Amino acid sequence: xxxxxTPDESPGTLLAEKGWLQGTVVxxxxxxxxxxxxxxxxxxxxxxxxxxxxxxxLPLLLYITVTFILSTLFMATLxxxxxxxxxxxxxxxxxxxxxENNMFAIPIDNxxxxxxxxxxxxxxxLVVWRCMVIYRGCRVPLWIVMVFPxxxxxxxxxxxxxxxxxxxxxxxxxxxxxINYTVPYLSVSLALNIIITIIIVLRLLTYRYRxxxxxxxxYGTQYTSIAAMIIESAALYSAFSVAFLTLFLLNNPIxxxxxxxxxxxxxxxxxxxxxxxxxxxxxxxxxxxxVMTSRPSVQPIRMGDFRSGSRDASxxxxxxxxxxxxxxxxxxxxxWLERVNVAAVK
Length: 346
Fold this sequence. Notes:
Rhopdopsin 7-helix transmembrane proteins, three-stranded antiparallel sheet
């Protein structure tokens, strides 16, 4: 009897098969997070939707529903393709790794590839939209800020179409044509997300510095905290993409773990943005006006004007007055910041 049940395959082949199988598991875990986030986002948006604001919430509801359906299709096809390679067709010459490379263009896998591509395009479009929202009202014209990211987004869409046409006939790891569109497409998509991550974080850091310099670091933290910057800029997906692309260019078999779960991670980053928007914590067109003002005023308020409160407090301040002073500071980009001082005067 043999002392080992290890198949007669090279260590590199076995490592590639391990990476593929583990990628399916990681993708399933990420999909579970997608399900939870989708339900939370849908509940919040649907609960807030009324006859007057449905035009604001309905597009987001449709958006997250379409991407969730696509992510479900991707997960189902990934599970089916993995089952074919490791169970039904496990005697394929060369094993599951050879099956993946040679059968990449079968219909079930093409459905998953198309679903994944559309999901990535929709997710990239969302971060471009968030960048536009965050920079609206900036002193620099919006089109100057958005022209470069928009061009990269269009290039990503074009390369994605070329990639999907290519993988319908061959594996993304081995191309029979002169150009393998896998690396160019994923590189452009990654570049788009990194650039948008940087410019969104710079915008939020600028606001954070200007606000904290006047009122302290706790003011406006729901919009400018580190967590807010990570979520708003989809930094999670950017970090995951860098890890995948680095391993892919090094021809490391573990890159298969990342490529299979890349779509679900991107959806997690997208749903986190939508969840913040649904909670009212996401940066919107009105955020700057919420924390800025341009009208200084001073208003005295006497304790006798209050009709509620304890008797002791009313007695203690019966002959006192409270002066509320509004101080304004210019913090750049044509914005003004207001600080409220409350002082009791005998």
